[in-house]
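BUG: 3D viewer hangs when loading the predicted structure for this chain

Environment: internal workstation, default settings.
Expected: structure renders.
Actual: progress bar stalls at 90%.

Input used:
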Amino acid sequence: MTAKSPGRPRQFDTDAVLDTIERQFHERGYHATTVADLLAASGLHKGSLYAAFGTKRAVFTTVLTRYADRRLALLDADFAAGPSPLGGLRRYLRRQAAEAAGGRGCLLANSALELLPGDTVVLSIVSGHQRRVEGRLVGALEQALVQGELGHVPEPRSAARALLVTVQGLWETGRTTNDVRRLVDVVDTVLAAFR
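Structure tokens produced before the viewer hung:
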């Protein structure tokens, strides 16, 4: 009996290809992005794309999950780089404002608007990301309270949810303006309400 050969090894950088595919979905959305678009952008042949990632749907959920993980890592970095819990929270919110201005929107929010309700996999990815962000926001608010940085905060979980909705609003508003200052003013106003 002859052993089947494992096939040729991948001849491409998986991360670079996923970055390229992510840009396609981010710029065009899931439905408007065709497999031909993904092949043209990535330089892969159809067989290589399917062998590496599966269907268009499978590569999309891979990209969306990866995007969510990267966004969470950026949040963690903002909190770690802040001089205090409130400073980390301010840094995170201001970065969101700067990234949102004049942009394409957040891939998670865009995907939720395009594919929800009705897509349980996207719902799971987006809502899971929102829960993780909310949990980190709650933690930052609780630490800021303990350290005396905040004078008036409603229950931290409710405040964290309000901040999460504020971030979503920044991304939506940022699609219609490239005025970073306008969005940063929103952040500063929201944070001032907690003092």
